[in-house]
Specification:
alpha+beta, Helix Hairpins, Heat Shock Protein 90, five-stranded mixed beta sheet, 15% strand
């Protein structure tokens, strides 16, 4: 009974039995009552026929002479006219004075009929006047003889047989119906157990179009997301190990060389080791920021800030680098730009990442521009914020191919696998930037075509 299929079958069988029992009781009672009414109506018709015959007897003889023998012979119990309908009926004949002068079995002759018997009797008339009364007990008219009882018994047996056949067919139909319900659930359970055991390839095969099929499709979507998450987790662990192994390997090699006297312990060597430790510290810090963002615990201290001033200050820090690379770094901001409730340091971190990437991938003589404007509710669409500040960082570099575009914000992803860590970082900057923008309830994206530069944009609600 722990099985859903067994519970459904038991409940369905119980409902069928209760329904059959109720139907049997109702039909049996109705059949008995109707048959009793039919018998009563047949008995009443027989009494009227007997009354007419008795009227003819009286008229032919001018009295009731010899009526007791005639009555017993003609209408006696078990024989004579009306025997099937009148079986078990106490049939009496009283004269005009109310004295019983004949009966089916000869009993009660000479006694006075009661007023109740006379009130329920049928009058016997001759020559237009009442000459007697035919008395029969009305409740006895409803009594069944052996043949009638056998008829009712056969009807009841037929009802039971029909109920048994209908119940068996209903159970058979219920079996197939409940199997159709529980079979997909069993398949879902099997797939879920495989997922729990680490087999992320398990899926529900061919989910149907009904509600249970929707659960199966939702499970398949969940399993696909889990498989992708597991793949991303393994890749991230491998990438973290790779990124940590390189600077640690450099540190270990240089320190061993110094201990062995291969490298002299000079300030230049110590500075090189210090650079590697800074790289390790930056990588660990980036990983910590990502972990906090994923857990929703990244600390954001919001205050009203001038976005234009943030952009100008951040771009100013890259002015010398842009000049050395012969790149035109320009800023275009709308007038009367509203203040945004943001964490200024976090937004500067995002801007530094975007501007630094743009300068890194823009050739000499190229351009990098930072644009900021206000997006209205109509621009944002239905359900958007009341208004938002939009920031776009565009460059004239090599751009991003359509194959790589969906992966730009993945962790440890670098479009050019040949680039060194010193030149392009660990591939965490854009992932962190997007998490920071999400923490401000904003959005971030990229627009690019290979050979036509790239534009990274983000919005901040006002």
């Amino acid at each position: 009974m722990n099985s859903l299929f067994a519970r459904l079958m038991f409940a369905f069988a119980l409902v069928i039995l209760i329904a059959i029992a109720i139907i049997f009781v109702i039909v049996n009672q109705t059949t008995t009552n109707e048959f009793r009414a039919y018998t009563f109506r047949g008995g009443t018709t027989t009494l009227e026929q007997i009354a007419r015959e008795l009227s003819a007897y009286y008229a032919a003889r001018g009295g009731w002479q010899g009526i007791d023998q005639y009555f017993a012979q003609t209408f006696g119990a078990g024989r004579g006219r009306g025997a099937p309908m009148m079986a078990g009926v106490a049939l009496l004949l009283a004269d005009s004075n109310g004295t019983i002068i004949a009966s089916r079995d000869g009993a009660n002759v000479g006694q006075k009929a009661t007023s109740a018997q006379l009130a329920a009797s049928l009058p016997v008339q001759a020559n237009g006047r009442n000459v007697g009364a035919l008395i029969a007990s009305s409740q006895n008219l409803a009594a069944f003889d052996a043949q009638q009882q056998e008829f009712l018994t056969r009807v009841n047996l037929s009802l039971l047989l029909a109920g048994a056949v209908a119940g068996a067919l209903a159970l058979l139909f219920g079996f197939f119906l409940f199997y159709q319900i529980t079979a997909p659930l069993n398949a879902l359970t099997t797939a879920a157990r495989k997922i729990a055991a680490g087999d992320f390839t398990a899926r529900v095969a061919n989910p149907r179009g009904d509600e249970i099929g929707q659960v199966g499709r939702a499970f398949n979507a969940m399993a696909e997301a889990l498989a992708q998450s597991e793949t991303a987790r393994r890749n991230m662990i491998a990438d973290i190990a790779h990124e940590l192994r390189n600077p640690l390997g450099v540190l270990q090699g240089q320190l061993e060389a110094m201990l062995d006297g291969v490298f002299p312990t000079t300030s230049e060597q110590i500075a090189s080791l210090h650079d590697e430790t800074l790289l390790l510290a930056r990588l660990v810090g980036d990983l910590r920021d990502l972990a906090l963002a994923d857990a929703g615990q990244l600390q954001i201290t919001r205050q009203p800030a001038d976005v234009r001033a943030l952009i100008e200050r951040t771009a100013g820090a890259f002015a010398l680098q842009a000049h050395e690379q012969n790149i035109a770094l320009t800023i275009h901001c709308a007038e009367n730009l509203p203040r945004a409730n943001v964490d200024a340091q976090r937004i500067e971190q995002v801007l530094r990442n975007l501007i630094g990437n743009a300068l890194r991938h823009t050739p000499d003589g190229g351009r990098v521009s930072v644009q900021c404007s206000v997006l209205s509710e109509q621009t944002l669409g239905v359900g958007g914020q009341r208004s938002a500040v939009s920031v776009r960082v565009s460059d004239t570099g090599s751009g991003i191919s359509s194959e790589d575009l969906p992966r730009v914000f993945e962790r440890f992803w670098r479009g050019d696998k040949a680039r060194t860590r010193a030149g392009s970082g660990a591939g965490l900057g854009l992932a962190i930037a997007k998490q920071l923008i999400r923490a401000h309830n904003g959005a971030m994206g990229v627009e690019s075509e290979a050979g036509r530069g790239a534009t990274f944009w983000f919005t901040l609600p006002v």
